[in-house]
Amino acid sequence: MVPHRGGAAQAQGRHGGADGRSGRHGQKGALERAYRLAEAAGIPLWCQDEAGPYQAIPHAGPSWQPRGQPARQPHEYVREGTTSLLTLFRPATGEVRAEPVVRTTNAVLHPWLKRELSALLARCPPVPPGAAAERQWGRWDWPADSHLLDAHLPPIRLIVVLDNLKGHHSYSLVQWCAERGILLLHTPVGGSWLNLAESVQRILVRRALAGQHPQSVAELQGWLLATVRGWNADPTPFAWGGKRAVRRARARDRRHALGGSGGYSRRPIRRRPSLIEQRLPTCQLTH
Q1: Assigned domain for 7 exists
Q2: Residues near 157 by beta carbon (within 8 Å), at least 6 away in sequence
Q3: pLDDT tens-digit profile of 226-247?
Q4: Which of 56, 89, 57 is CA-nearest to residue 76?
Q5: Domain presence at residue 273
Q6: Other C-beta atoms within 10 Å of 169: how many?
Q7: H or E element: which one contains 112?
Q8: CATH number at residue 203
Q9: Band of pLDDT at residue 267, cut at 50, 70 and 90
Q10: What is the value of pTM for the model shown?
């Protein structure tokens, strides 16, 4: 049993509130909570995204060359096709599982995603008897009625952050994941910064293609795979945070200065209204 997500526009967070902001504050909060707490609770968290398409053409960027022999790119070339990169990334360990493909339709993405997730589930330890509250669906999912899933689905074993709901969402994929204890969290429209897979994709693609000229799609795919293998040989873990998180924390913990001194208050001090604000008669203003 999977909760109904509503229409495409509503699921994408297009219906904002009166202030014009996205109506999916709970969805963004669930993603941030998952980044901070999932791994600590023993639940592996992976991010998934599709990078590309990238063309087999000269790519701008620096490259290592002998002194006095700069790299030269042809001014004429033939477009030799494109390729994309399906990526699964675990921020806690830095591990990347990727596969270059020519197309990223659901017919290609969903079988690959099911194979990779099945392999990841085989590596997960079994859920201990009497699973803790952290593995309950109602703790992580953002629909209001998600707590009802605990009576019908197994405890959560894996959390996967996917791209926005409209792109590759299907009922069969959600059902397949739910029956195996895989919680899917979708990034809202305009919230690509919530998916850390995009960060590692930019690093991998820049390392593979910057300043290079792949001559064919096969060569392009080979370079991308070689870069992924090199990354996994010495992966770099990612931690949730950054400038956006600092700004939001500062807004939640707003500090108000006190007359230029070194102190501050947690809430603004109520100031005395002026005479004009009190809307007093003119005769009283001049008295």
Answers
A1: no
A2: 43, 121, 124, 127, 135, 180, 181, 182
A3: 999 999 999 999 888 766 667 7
A4: 57
A5: no
A6: 17
A7: helix 106-123
A8: 3.30.420.10
A9: low
A10: 0.71
